[in-house]
Amino acid sequence: MPDTLPHPQADASLGPLAGLRILELGHFVAAPFATRLLGDLGAEIIKVEPPGGDPVRQWGARHQGHAPWWSVHARNKRCITLDLKQPEARQIVLDLVQHCDALVENFRPGQLEKMGLGRDALLAARPGLVIGRISGYGQDGPYRDKPAFGVIGEAIGGLRYLTDQPPGTSDLPPVRVGISLGDSVAGIYAALGVVAALWRRDNRQAGTGRGGEVDVALTESVFSLLEGALPEYGTLGSIRQPAGGGIATAAPTNAYRARDGIWVLIAANSEPLFRRLTALMGQPGLVEDPRFVGNQQRVRNVADLDAIITAWTATMDGLDLERRLDEAGIPSTRAFTVADCATDPQFLARGMVREVQDPLHGPVLHPGVVPRVDGAVPPPRSTGPDIGADNAAVLGELLGKTPREIAALKDAGVI
């Protein structure tokens, strides 16, 4: 195990991955999200950015000249700058990996090889290194060299087709889910793959001691989420269609508008739940209506059923509707905005919304760590730092470079 670089801001022993050091050559979303998850669980992350910084530093809303997203996106990371176009910067990467357990990157396939930082060079520097690679289509195949972002992965993975209203009901394009879901899912798979490869290397009974490569594609990450769509197509020839706010196989399950415009989701698709809902609506006879006897009939006549439920929900405000559904024991909730999330008692009780102090922002809200391990809810060890904030610490403490040498690297544009 490589030596541990002390972190000046917190106890690095917190978390089940404490003791692991991971180098991030990531940008935008997928690789940085993977390392954020590993850092949340205790790993030490050293993030390499170009001298101008990761583009995400400029994304989204700005506060005091900085993007608040960065506070979370780069939390628990030590950020250094390297111009990887320069040979001396590439040598620094090879020097750093000698002290690391894993490297995570999301360049286009072949890009690291062109810079002299391909698999062979990295493993020569550190034979036990695990290399996590995230790309649009994977490291091989006919599409490997095509550019892709998360939205492309979502489209090719089959998700964007499904995020739409039922066929024939809208001429608007299929909607994006509102976040970079394809990137984030790929990041989750990459984090899992890195941990699995490290276990293969280090486990007591059958550890090989060797590193290896984890290959994650955005397209495949999204495609893997499609539940039974592929086996249904393979056995029945059926192509799953968009279902809007509902579920094609169960009813009633949809979002219904309250009198004040709030959307409330109601999932009452079992027989006992449907009976409770009809009683609450004051229409218990609906359970005997031939159109709604059993789930299959309700699915066939879901438009009629949703219209009846919508007529009822439109008679009261959202909060009253939520209260009545909750008292009746029916799974339901309004569609939360981020403001709802930030003040939700359950999120607050479990530490999923917490205020932290950020040197770039002052007080800022962060999401908590998922998953919990042994009930622990550790706070962030650090928030996303300024560009090159850890150059001197990492290059000095880990590689033994003197202040004069670090200043020379800066003057030469290497860092």
Please give a handful of descriptors for the protein shown.
three-stranded antiparallel beta sheet; CoA-Trfase_III_dom_1_sf; 415 residues; alpha/beta; Rossmann fold; 2 domains; CoA-Trfase_fam_III; six-stranded parallel beta sheet; CoA transferase; 18 helices; 14% strand; transferase; formyl-coa transferase, domain 3; disordered N terminus
Descriptive notes:
The protein is an alpha/beta fold and 415 residues long. It has two domains: 21-224 and 349-411, 3-Layer(aba) Sandwich (Rossmann fold), CATH 3.40.50; 253-257 and 263-334, formyl-coa transferase, domain 3, CATH 3.30.1540.10. The chain is built from 18 helices and eleven strands. It has helices spanning 30-40, 68-73, 87-97, 111-114, 119-125, 150-156, 159-162, 181-202, 218-223, 229-236, 271-280, 295-300, 302-313, 318-327, 338-343, 345-349, 391-398, 403-411; strands at residues 21-25, 44-49, 77-81, 102-105, 130-135, 212-217, 253-257, 263-267, 332-334, 353-358, 362-367. The strands form three sheets. It has a six-stranded parallel sheet with strand order 3-2-1-4-5-6, with helices on both faces. α1 crosses α8 and α6 crosses α8 (181-202). The model is unreliable at 1-10 (pLDDT under 50).
